[in-house]
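The pair is quoted verbatim below.
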Amino acid sequence: MSLEAECGWTLLRAITVSLVATPLVTILARTLQLDSPRHRRRRLVALAIPFLTPGFVVGYAYSNVTLDLVHQPVLNELFYDLLLLIGVVPVGTFVLVLAPPPPLGPTADWCGQLAGSDRLRRVRSCGWSRSLWYGPARNRIPAFGLMALLVFHEFEIASLFRVIAGQRLTPASWSNALFELIALQGLGQRSPWDLWRFGWMPLACSLGLLAPLLALAWTSRRDPGVLRPTGLRPRSPWEERVASTWLAVAVGMGTAIPLGNLIYDGAPGWAATWRGEHRLGPTLAHAGRSLIPTVAIAVSAAIIAGWLLRRRHPGLLMALSLPGLLGNLSLGLLLTWTLLIMAPAGFGHSIGALLIGQSLWLLPRAALLIVLLAVLPRRESTYLSRLLQRGPTAAQRIAGWRLTWQHFGQRVAWMVGLLCWWGYLELTLNELLAPPEWLSVAHRMYQQMHFGRNAALSSTTLVVVMVPLAVVGLLVTLGRFVSVPTIFLASGSPRTHAKPPEREA
């Protein structure tokens, strides 16, 4: 199958999966908005867990299913689509929950219908497109586009599922086809015309799917509110059952079964993990070395996104986020060609190239997390914490730093931790930009997965996945007991003045 045909099949899959996911994310968003705070927190955790599960772990766990369905490509495609649906539903739900309410709500639409029965008159006065964009479907269109974009750029599961059925490879994926095509000949030996000929169609499809989201971000002028129940009708019992059933299926198939598969298959290989080819010591050392550049990348992306949101530069933020939204493969190929051909020799495969690529890739995720976690502190709380930090007594200064940690520090820690998780498990940019001696431990595990399954590989993969989770758990535990760094409580003459917050324009 040609690259154009693979791109067409992938686009058709992205649209189909997103169409199926749209009513589901609508039900989940309504359920979250009408839940009590305790139940809402549980549903958010259950919703986010499948999205945070590494794709190569899911593909590795279900790779035998693909081999069993090698002569049944339709069932293989449906199973792959189900896994994609589990992965993108949380993203669409968060878009509906975080997006500002539409200017024309259901009440305004109903009043427009009561104003006159002539449909042509209503179309001429408002326009169906304007009513669609500013009406109840305003937020569903960007959610659809973002989910379709994620499905279109999925790479890891498709690569591990890719088997030969007759004379075509299933499942069809333009990213795998392009990666295999470029792997036959080095990128540095390709001409700019070849790269443009290979990449113009995926780039055009990505921009088309991304256009509604960019339009919503540009036209929205108000700060998004989180989990607003205003104007929502009471949910029906069947919506509650659908939401609960889906979350149970998503957590089971997207996280529980893959991790359980690693534990079960890796049990006979724990002895080989301690000694032999997959030794625990070198694996942990490699994992720690992979975390070092990831922390720097996550911190830099968070600082840039926070500064742009704080200074309110939506145009510059969208311009810098656009390369990361186009997918890591498209971004990696563009940076690889630029650095290998136009940059000085030796910078193509370097830590600097990896830092640039993953920073651009993590920038839109950092901006979304800042909005989701409300990382940017409010002026009132910031002013109060600064006054307490400059108080005359140690108790007041401690209270000020504790307030800063609770309203700002904990959220920043969670944001940086999630960015480190994504950067630690990223594979494509690591393959294209990182030098051979700096390939991440997750990428090495992913390469070995293509040669088959064994107990030692399963146990080692489980260790690789658990290392960042253990670090995050340790930091969260320490944060509960050490909420106020003692370095900030050094003796000295306290300042009793603080700059009051400026009045908003």
